[in-house]
Each structure stands twice: as C-alpha cells, then as structure tokens.
Write a structure and sequence with these properties.
The complex is a heterodimer of chains A (234) and B (524). Chain A is 44% helix and 4% strand. By secondary structure, chain A is mainly α. Chain A folds into two domains: 90 residues, Orthogonal Bundle (Fumarate Reductase Iron-sulfur Protein, Chain B, domain 2), CATH 1.10.1060; 127 residues, no CATH class. Chain A has a three-stranded parallel beta sheet with strand order 3-2-4, with no helix packed on it. In chain A, strand 2, helix 9 and strand 3 form a beta-alpha-beta unit. Chain A starts with 6 loop residues before the first strand and ends with a strand. Chain B has 524 residues and is of the alpha/beta class. Chain B has four domains: 155 residues, FAD/NAD(P)-binding domain; 143 residues, FAD/NAD(P)-binding domain; 52 residues, Alpha-Beta Plaits (2-Layer Sandwich); 145 residues, Rossmann fold, CATH 3.40.50. Helix content of chain B is 28%, strand content 23%. In chain B, the strands form eight sheets. In chain B, strands 3-2-1-7-18 form a five-stranded parallel beta sheet, covered by helices on one side. Chain B is globular and about 90 Å long. The chains are: A mainly alpha (234), B alpha/beta (524).
C-alpha cells in the first residue's frame, strides 16, 4: 500500500474502533507479530501496520487495502503478542467492513455457492452422492472391507460427519482412511446428502451472519437425522 | 545536638527526608539558597530549623563532627553537624530550540503544563489537539514520559482534547509506567514513535504548530496540526551542585550529579562517609522513585548515628617525622579522610583502609599496621611442595582485593574447584593498597610468579584503587625487564566477586606458564 498525499492525523477519528474488544490500543509496537508472521513482507503487509492503522482510526485506508486479506489467520502473531492483542479477530473485524461484493474473488465465489447450494463447490446432490458411492465401491473391493457402503442420510446414527469440500473434489483418497476406521470399529455413522459442507468461509471473510447460517444448517441436519454426535473435521 | 543533620535542598525529596528524620527524633537544619521553602516543608517541629537564602561556604571535619560555615548570617561561626544530606530539587532546561520552536502561550514546557490550570492556555477547548514532544531531540527519561502521560490523561478525559505523544523510544521501564501507558491508550492518547527521521515543525504566528512526518510503522506520510505543543526539558544538575561537590570534595558522574557511576555508592552514598546525596542531586529521578529515596536516606542516617557503618580495623597513620607535606595522600584519598592542619592528618573515622595513601606516599611516611610490608611479609612464607609431587610446582602469590577476588577465591574453594598447589593468597581491603614494595616482597620471599587481582574498572570502592594497582604493575613489569627477569612473571587481572571459575582458570593458566618458565631462584 503506497500513499503519496500526506494523511492529516488531526482529522482521523482515533477512537473509531475503540469499542472493538481486541485490545489493539495496547500495542507497544514491539514487532513480535511482524517477525512471527509467515506472510510478513508480501506486498508490504505486516500485522503491526494493520494494528497501527486500526488504532489510528484509518477506516478508509483499511477497507481499500489488500493487506488485511493477505493474512492467513494462522494466529502465530496472537500467540507471541506480549500485550495479548487478538490479531486474527482484528483482521476479521477489518474484513467485515468491506462491501460483500468486494470480498476477494475465490472467497466471495465460494461463499455465494455455499449459501446457494450448501457447499463451496456448488456441487449438485446427485454428483455428491455419486462420488461418495464410487469411493465406497472402491473400499469394498479391498480385502477385509467386503460389502462396505456409505450410509448417506441414515436416521438415528451415533455420529454425523460433515465433509470438507476438497475431499469430494481433489482429495477423494483421504475419505477412505477414516471411513475404514469407522468400518473396523463397527461405528454407526452417517453423512448428510445436503448441506454437508464442513468449511465455513464466513470465518475468513469476517462475515458473522454467514457463519451462523452455515452452522445452523449443520444443526438442522443433526435434528433431521436424529444423530447422536457431530464430527466436524475442519 | 550532636546528631543534627544538615539537609541541603528544597522540594519533595528534601521535605520527605526532613519528615522521616524528625519522626525519628533526629534534629534537622534545612538550608537552601532559594528564597522560600516549598509548601510541604511546613512541618511543626521544635527540632527543625530552616534557613533560606543560605549557601554552604566551607566544610571541615568528618562524619559525626562536620564543621560547616553557612553564608547566613554573614561571618557566623561554623556549626556542627553529625551528617549531611544533599537533596536538591531537579533543574530543567527547556528544549524549545532543539525542535526549532519558540515559547508562546500555546507552546509550553512539560513543567509549565504540569503546573498550569485547566485550560492550560486560552482557547483550548474540547476537540483541540495537544502534542507532547518527549525525548525526540535528546534522549528522554522515563519520568518525562510519566509526566506527559499524566498530563495527556488530564487533557483528554478532563478537557475532551485530543492528545498525542511524539517520542523516540517510549520508555516504560519504571514503576507503574506500563499500567499508566495502558490507561492513556484506553483514554485515546495517540503515540507516534520515531527511529530514523524526525518530524519537521512549522510554528505560525498564532502559536499553532504544523508537524509533518513519516510514520515509522505504516511508512505513510502524515501531517498534524497542534493547537497546543508541549516540549520536554533537558534535566541538568543545578549550578549549586557544582559548588557543593567542590566544597565537600565529592565525586560526581559524567553529567555532574553528586555520586560517581560506581555500584558501591548506591543508593544514596557518596565517596565521603556521613555525606549522602539523594533525589535529583544524584541523578535524574522519577517522581515514583521518591519514596524509596527518602526511606533509603533516613535509614542510612540512622545507621550512621548508631555507628553501624564504621569500618573496623587498623587505620592509616602518618609518621609526622617522615612526612614532607607533599600532599600526595591528601590528593589521592578517595574518601577525603585526610585533612590539612599544619600538616596532613588522617581522620581515623573516615579512613576506609584502602591503603592508597600508604602505597603512594613518596616518603614512606604512612602505614596501616596490618597491611604494612612487614605484616604482609609474615604471610608470605613459601608453601612446601607435597611429598608425592613429581616435580616442584611453582610458588605463586596472589594479591586479592577483599571485595572481588577474595570472595571469588572463597567461592572457588567452596565449590570444589581445584587451585594451584602452591598458591598463597594475600587478601587486602583494596588493590589500591598493593604497593611496589608488596609486589617486590613477594618475589623476594621466593614467589616464581605474582598475580594481582583488582576489581573491574569503574567498580572500585575506592574509585581509582584498581587503576593505581594496574599502573604499579605495569611499572614493575618494566623494572623486571630491566633487571633481566621475565616481565610475564607478574600478571594483572580484573575480577568480580562471583567469578570463581575465572579465578581458578587464571591461576591455573598462570601456574602452567610459570612452570614452563621454570623457578625464578630468588630467595633472600
């Protein structure tokens, strides 16, 4: 982020984000966050800059800046911060200030698809069921797993599990490991055919209402299928 | 009135000390060149006497019996005091010129704003911006930061003003400062820190200041309009302190405060027994440190009165018949324990037994009985070799300062570290007392090598004893060379009292080196 025109510090409202419960105003500018951050330096990003800008009340600059979107929200900065500033939450706070249609491409698209179809990929139910059954068939070919099937929409199971979208996209092999464990353990489990998405990108876009919608859908599945426990890998 | 203390100073530390001493029934005379004493000095006590517009002009005597001449009333006889405390208030010099600013109703100093009412200047209402410049041009002090933070809190919460502190390093390393910092941040005080380029200041005729700078953290350019600008002040020793250090013969630090940069003087000691330096007289002090300073001074005065701080043992004595009145002893005594009558006289109570006078006296007219060359020679009998030794280990003599190498050697022995087989340790109160004669005597009594252990530079209780010892050692090396003896048979090393391993290692390395060189073969 480069600015050539001087910003008038007197005109900024330094108290603008005072009510945020993230303690950004306690920053001592020690730079432990900057040195711990795995993406410090990318396009000039550095978590301390963001904390400083929030502290000074630089709302416009923050909303326009790409910096808050470079953060991966890994949380190392918060772990090392001597003043206990909640830096990833602060990043979410800033991201929430952007108009939703200006949320960066892939996050925006994924969330729109999730809201519309129940998963980030926009995968239709028939395709989802086809992929799961195909993986189940492959498992059933292996010695010791004869007759293996995937229990989709089974009522009254002990465990209901969500699915991370990449497991039905590029990483289908990864489904097999835990399904085999279920089989070996004789577990009574199920996976819903609708709203099975395990990720919640409302987290990364700073969108609390969307997080609530996504979590609500899982709760609905639990009630509909009368499942005993939820397994939510992601 | 034999316990009476002379308190030189005016201000919160002086009045605190006066109260503490009076509450312990110690009579106090307070003398200050100021025309009036500060309000908190209004202590109803028959044991307090206050003299304003009064300078100290002369002082003789020593702890327990100082004779002090005061400028008021003129020509009066000297007064007797048991002890003396110097507790002058701070002296501040505004930093306007360092920032290119000039004083105006809205460009003030930190102490002005501290004393000012609310609003601190006309026209400063809610929403106006106040900017504090702290430690920007010259290194600041935590107490400046503390004062600025407190003023900001007052202006921000009481007046609704916007306040900012522009600083180089935000120094929060003093009692309660980090908590205060948090409170200011919660109140909305903004901090801008600078490490490279400093801001540019432009003061208009109305006293407003336009400040332009690049923010260190975001690297973005900013401007700032200050309706009120507050500059910090350089803290310097008061001019009177210079007179006092001369009159009382007190060591000062590089800035001129009364107390040298010497760990042995902490917290309120000076080089002279019975004369203490407290508060802004001994350095820059934060307001929050005052109480500790006052307590420390009062406790030390009580200890002095009870005689708890006297140095036991033989003291220096001058043989009047041998003295040629060259005044070397008078010049070199770090404790000012030698006064001049018709000839130099040792003030026995003030003598700390460092032995510098005796070691340096060109007429050999001074002796401290147990440190005298004969007494030390008694302790220099060579250690016989163990029967099972295959070859004769070298005989080593180590002169050790009792404040550093002495305890280091004890610690080495206690922690089971091996020491050279034939090492004779001669502990002395200060390495400044190790004379050329002592060193030569060691060789004369059969030493193959001589070690001289002194305190680290700047860490000598006698201020320069270690430097004098180093100078004599260097001189003796030269002499040894001239008479055909390897100068490496004498080694000087500085140590601290906790350096047991270094003591043992130095001694072993030296033993090895001397063993290789072979026996010296002098035994008279």
């Amino acid at each position: 982020m480069t600015t050539t025109e001087p910003i008038s510090m007197s005109d900024l409202n330094h108290g603008l984000f005072k009510n945020w419960p993230f303690d950004q105003d306690h920053c001592l500018t020690c730079a432990l966050c900057s040195s711990s951050c795995p993406v410090s330096g990318i396009d000039g990003f550095d978590p301390r800059k963001i904390i400083r800008m929030v502290s000074l009340g630089m709302q416009n600059e923050l909303v326009e800046s790409r910096w808050p979107w470079i953060c991966t929200m890994c949380g190392k900065c918060e772990h090392v911060c001597p003043m206990g500033i909640h830096i990833p939450d602060l990043m979410r706070g800033i991201r929430s200030l952007r108009d939703r249609d200006k949320v960066p491409g892939i996050l925006h698209k994924g969330l729109e698809a999730a809201l519309k179809t129940g998963n980030n990929l926009g995968l239709p139910t028939e395709d989802f069921v086809f992929i799961l059954e195909d993986v189940a068939d492959e498992i059933a070919q292996e010695p010791g797993f004869e007759g293996f099937t995937v229990p989709i929409d089974k009522e009254g199971a002990n465990i209901l599990t969500t699915i991370h979208n990449k497991l039905v996209n590029t990483h289908t092999e990864d489904l097999k490991h835990w399904w085999k464990i279920f089989y070996a353990a004789g577990e009574d489990w199920t996976v819903p055919s609708e709203n099975w998405e395990g990720t919640n990108w409302g987290l990364f876009t700073g969108d609390d209402p969307i997080m609530k919608v996504m979590a609500g859908r899982i709760a609905e599945n639990m009630a509909r299928l009368k499942a005993g426990n939820l397994m939510w890998p992601e | 009135m034999k316990e009476r203390t002379l308190l030189i100073g005016n201000g919160p530390v002086a009045s605190g000390i006066a109260k503490a001493l009076l509450s312990a029934d110690i009579p106090v005379m307070l003398a200050t060149p100021d025309t009036a004493v500060s309000g908190d000095m209004d202590i109803p006590s028959p044991f307090l006497e206050v003299r304003t517009e009064t300078h100290v002009s002369r002082c003789t005597g020593s702890a327990g019996n100082f004779q002090v001449n005061l400028s008021q009333p003129p020509g009066s006889a000297p007064l007797t005091f048991a002890n003396i405390v110097i507790a002058e208030d701070g002296f501040q010099k505004p930093n306007f010129s360092l920032y290119g600013l000039s004083a105006s109703p809205t460009v003030l100093t930190l102490s002005e704003i501290q004393k000012a009412g609310t609003p601190p200047a006309p026209g400063l209402s809610a929403g106006k911006t106040a900017v504090f410049l702290i430690g920007m041009a010259e290194d600041g002090y935590p107490h400046d930061t503390e004062t600025a933070m407190e003023c900001c809190l007052k202006l921000q919460t009481g007046q609704g003003m916007k306040t900012m502190i522009l600083t180089r390093n935000l120094k929060v390393g003093a009692m309660g400062l980090e908590a205060l910092y948090r409170r200011t941040r919660d109140a909305g005080v903004v901090y801008v820190k600078f490490s490279d380029a400093l801001p540019a200041f432009q003061q208009d005729e109305g006293g407003k200041v336009r400040i332009t700078f690049t923010d260190d953290i975001t690297r973005m350019p900013f401007t700032l309009q200050a309706d009120l600008t507050v500059v910090d002040e350089a803290v310097v020793p008061s001019p009177y302190l210079k007179d006092l250090s001369r009159i009382f013969c007190l060591d000062t630090d590089s800035a001129g405060y009364i107390q040298s940069d010497n760990v042995h003087r902490l917290s309120v000691f000076t080089n002279r027994k019975g004369i203490l330096s407290a508060g802004a007289s001994r350095g820059v002090l934060s307001p929050s440190a005052r109480q500790a300073e006052i307590r420390e001074t009062a406790v030390t005065i009580l200890s002095l009165i009870k005689g708890a701080l006297t140095t036991p043992g033989h003291k220096a004595e001058i043989n009047a018949g041998a003295c040629v009145r060259c005044l070397t002893c008078y010049r070199l005594c770090p404790y000012h324990a030698i006064t001049l009558n018709t000839r130099p006289v040792v003030v026995t109570d003030a003598c700390e037994r460092c032995g510098i006078c005796a070691a340096e006296c060109p007429a050999e007219a001074i002796r401290i009985d147990d440190l005298h060359i004969q007494a030390v020679s008694e302790r220099l009998r060579p250690i016989p070799c163990r029967d099972d030794s295959a070859s004769l280990a070298p005989f080593l003599v180590a002169f050790c300062c009792s404040r550093s190498a002495g305890p280091a050697k004890e610690l080495a022995a206690l922690s089971g570290q091996s020491l050279p087989e034939r090492l004779s340790v001669i502990e002395v109160p200060c390495s400044g007392g190790i004379s050329l004669e002592h060193l030569m005597a060691a060789f004369q009594h059969g030493a193959d090598g001589v070690l001289v252990f002194t305190c680290h530079e700047g860490n000598c209780h006698s201020e320069r004893g270690n430097i004098l010892a180093a100078r004599r050692t260097a001189h003796l090396k030269n002499v040894l060379k001239q008479i055909g003896i390897d100068p490496n048979r004498i080694l000087l090393k500085t140590l601290a009292s906790n350096m047991a391993a270094e003591f043992a290692e130095t001694a072993h390395t030296f033993e090895k080196q001397i063993a290789e060189a072979g026996p010296l073969g002098i035994n008279l």
